[in-house]
Design goal:
Helix 4 packs antiparallel against helix 5 and helix 5 packs parallel to helix 6. The strands form 3 sheets. This protein has a 7-stranded mixed sheet, with helices on both faces. It has a 4-stranded antiparallel sheet with strand order 2-1-4-5, with helices on one face. It has a 4-stranded antiparallel sheet with strand order 12-13-11-14. It has 2 domains: 197 residues, 3-Layer(aba) Sandwich (Rossmann fold), CATH 3.40.50; 91 residues, no CATH class. It has 10 helices and 15 strands. The longest helix is centred in the middle third of the chain and has 15 residues. With 320 residues, the protein is of the alpha/beta class. The protein is elongated and about 70 Å long.
């Protein structure tokens, strides 16, 4: 088995709205996959379908080589999930929660690992969850998810609401888990710097469609900002292949383009700017520009504001 997660044409409607549209996803064993997109893009719905919590209208999901609807108990025990917000039973103490969760995972429970995590975070075993800080609840949730020694860990925005110190502690713990061979982590996040720190591959949903599925470094190399300067008001941009957005900013025309090359260069030079430059972007800026696209009040040129951004995928694994 080389793939931890496989989906084929995974689709979900809520009423007449198609929230996830024909999702073809393949996540390799041992990889760390960052799942990105704006609010409402379909990330949480996808995760619920991966876990069997929500039934798709059509399509299929396979986890660790088994159809989601027919997971043997021993395989289900190799999958862990951290829900957004880290919901825990308020009246339970940390020790009571450990005892409760251990009863379901006796065969794979790693008490030594759990104790190390609890000690590292200085989490008091007799303290009730309702009296823990939000960061402490996240730490307990991570500890309980890791204790059964999962092969696949699925996380839905695990660092949302944490302060920067708690986030860093959480990520360090997650990196240590990653370094234990063969594990696969699939996580969504709105904090792009977290994704850049740990993910070797990313997928980006735009309006329910997987528009990006490639190594993190490839995405950052593919998206460029091109800034043109004019002596007066910039002309309308005529458009080009790979154009994500074109915005006027004073005497500048700011373009975001996927796979900038000679054809795009010819279009830029045809406008006869006083000067222009191609700028690299970090993952956060590239994701924001890519998912925002041309839906901006200062968009200029002949773009269709409702069109989708260009697809970015590594060879042989293009999203459909």
């Amino acid at each position: 088995m080389t793939e931890a997660i496989v989906t084929e044409r995974l689709t979900k409607f809520y009423g007449s709205q198609r929230v996830v549209n024909g999702l073809n996803l393949s996540v390799s064993v041992g990889s760390v996959y960052g799942f990105l997109g704006r609010n409402g893009a379909g990330k949480s719905t996808t995760i619920r379908m991966l876990l069997g919590m929500t039934r798709p209208n059509y399509g299929r999901v396979e986890l660790l080589g088994h159809e989601i609807g027919a997971l043997p108990p021993e395989v289900r025990g190799r999958i862990a999930f951290l829900a957004e917000g880290h919901p825990l039973v308020g009246w339970m103490t940390v020790a009571e929660a450990v005892k409760f969760h251990r009863a379901f995972h006796a065969a794979r429970w790693n008490q030594e690992l759990l104790d190390r995590i609890l000690d590292h975070f200085a989490l008091p075993p007799r303290k009730k969850f309702r009296r823990l800080s939000f960061g402490q609840r996240a730490q307990v949730s991570l500890a309980l998810a890791i204790a059964p020694d999962p092969d696949l860990l699925i996380l839905d925005d695990p660092t949302a609401g944490l302060d920067m110190v708690a986030r860093r502690e959480f990520l360090v713990s997650m990196i240590q888990l990653i370094q234990r061979g063969g594990r696969t982590i699939f996580f969504s996040s709105h904090i792009i710097s977290d994704v850049q720190r740990v993910a070797d591959r990313i997928g980006i949903l735009v309006d329910g469609v997987l528009r990006v599925d490639c190594p993190t470094a490839q995405f950052m190399e593919s998206v460029r900002k091109v800034v043109l300067t004019f002596p007066g008001k910039p002309p309308a941009f005529p458009g080009c292949e790979g154009l994500v957005s074109a915005r006027e900013a004073g005497r500048r025309l700011e373009l975001v383009i996927v796979n900038f090359g000679d054809p795009q260069r010819e279009v830029v030079e045809s406008l006869k700017p006083a000067g222009w430059e191609v700028l690299e972007m970090n993952l956060e800026d590239a994701c924001i520009e890519y998912t925002r696209g041309s839906k901006e009040p200062f968009s200029v040129g002949a773009e269709d504001p409702d069109r989708s951004p260009p697809t970015i995928a590594d060879e042989g694994n293009a999203p459909q």
